[in-house]
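Hello,

Our lab assistant flagged a job as stuck in the queue for most of the afternoon. It eventually completed. Since we weren't sure the result was trustworthy after the delay, we are filing this so someone can double-check. Below is the sequence as submitted and the structure that was eventually returned. Let us know if re-running is recommended.
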Amino acid sequence: MKKLFLVLTVVVVAVVGCTSSPTHSKPEAVVNAAMDAWNAGDVTALKALFADDAVACFPDWGDECTTGAEEIGVWIKELVAVNFSIEPESIEMEGDTVTVVAKVWADPTRELGVAPLVTTDVYTVQDGQITSQTSTLTEESAAKLMEAMVTAESMSVINAALDAWNTRDVAALKALYADNAVACFPDWGEECTTGAEEIGVWIEELVAVNFSIEPESIEMEGDTVTVVAKVWADPSRELGIAPLVTTDVYTVENGKITSQTSTLTEESASKLMEAMVATITTVEDLVGVWESGRWVLEFTENGGYRIKAGRMSTSMAVGEIWFEGDQLHVKDSPGFCSQDEIGRYEVEGIVGDYLTLTAITDPCGARDAALTERWTWVSD
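-- returned structure --
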């Protein structure tokens, strides 16, 4: 009986000893067990497969390594939490070193649309446990991941900007633009809004007129984000043409918008132009220099006008203008048309942009032919 008790004691001790350490001793078997544990999400098994003083290095993520049981344990839990899995493509062995080329998946790379990535994992195994692991992405996978991460950062910045416009958050908007940012709006002129101060004023002005934006499509390519969106603002609401549709092209670098170019779609630009055209009924709104393809037309504050073949040429016609109701009356000094030949015109256009004169009646055919053109504003 005493002898039987001693035998059972030895068996129990042996069994306890076996279960307290990894059952795989060959390096390849240890690494295969680790990959099985990753795919099973078995945190306990994974922790047991790494030595207490193990080191895991990931050069693609920085110079620092994960060292020791505690740090390794945290790293294992973090990877298991994002559903990390691995599928080996090749395994090579040399002594206690095992090199695995494998496809790997995890929720973050799935969300970025780049899974699986391919890694080369070099393990050192001693006494049935992993003592070191170095994992590097292949060149192709590293490039794919980097591009996806840049794109994701760019998208995050643009989404934040869209949200800030809609919540009227001036401070957040200013913080999202780089100090040297440039914003261009070709539909409104050739000059761009440049630098933190000008960008800040522009943001404040748009927020003041209750600007809002609703994206219809977003396309990303590296650090460039293209947004087609409906936009609203008080002026377009008052004109009855909101929303307009814009194509906004952003460049994002280091988490900041460095450039933005916003253009109206052709349909929206036409809609806006048509809404802004108005009948002009005061001399004050005509004052300045206007050009057509052939002539230069000047209106003065005191009601004078002249037509010239060019800015530096002599006047072909000189006279006076005035409005009666919404009709422009034109009367020439002697020379071009008879003084008693008064022309009457309807004037439409956008002040400081362009105008068209349509003859209601003008007995002077030469003046009619010269004035009834589309005129573009040049200067005061």
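-- support follow-up --
The delay was a queue issue, not a problem with the job. The result is valid. Residues 278-379 form a domain with the Lipocalin fold (CATH 2.40.128). Residues 77 and 368 are 85 Å apart (CA to CA).
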